[in-house]
Amino acid sequence: xxxxxxxxxxxxVGTLYSYFGSVRLIAERWAAQGRGHLREITRDDIAEAVDxxxxxxYSNAVSALRSFFRFAKKYGRVFADPTRGFKVLRKEVRxxxxxxxxxxxxxxxxxxxxxxxxxxxxxxxxxxxEEAMRGLLLEHLDFAAGxxxxxxxPQRMGALTRAALRACLAExxxxxxxxxxxxxxxxxxxxxxxxPVSTYFLKRQLTLQGVSLQRxxxxxxxxxxxxxxxxxxxxPCSSTSPRAPP
Length: 246
Fold this sequence. Notes:
The chain is mainly alpha-helical. The chain has helices spanning 13-32, 43-50, 55-74, 101-110, 114-126, 130-135, 159-175, 199-206, 213-228; strands spanning 141-142, 147-150, 153-156. 48% of the residues lie in helices and 4% in strands. It is elongated.
């Protein structure tokens, strides 16, 4: 998972630790019960292993076990995958509520790193998703025309976004002046490559102590919906936002 191969991409370190932590406890129980090989594990064993788990603990355990046994089957460690048919529970969809003044103030105080402030600007002003942030290239910025292209859609670059971009690019130029990476967001792990930063980078570096980027983006989308009468054809493209942190 860490290195990937010709058919699978490398996974974030956080995902690796999460999966390993879930599988290790279950595998140790199987070993204590006298199981000597993964081929001895059945669907009943999987069901017993996740029995009693709820919510994210259940989903994490099932995801980890499915990944574990897919790998085992791919490399001939088992003949059949006992996790087939086990579904990962979907997260409960909660209603969107506007961010409180306290949450907005908390974002303003917490987002101090240039990369964090840029992510907040992209989420708050442009309602950008994490994938769009990770895929943003230098070619997508046009400071002369004052536009930024996210997910193939050109948008006006307001003062907040422009300032956040310049600060982030200035820090990266100082830290990695010779990087071949053309992405706007660069980390220590990707500075010597051409890869985008990982999802773990955004969650580890830019999750703002209880106020996530998704929460900020949801508030932005809700604000646009309220302002436009929830017009499904409306695209968020304004250069400023009344809820955008300074």
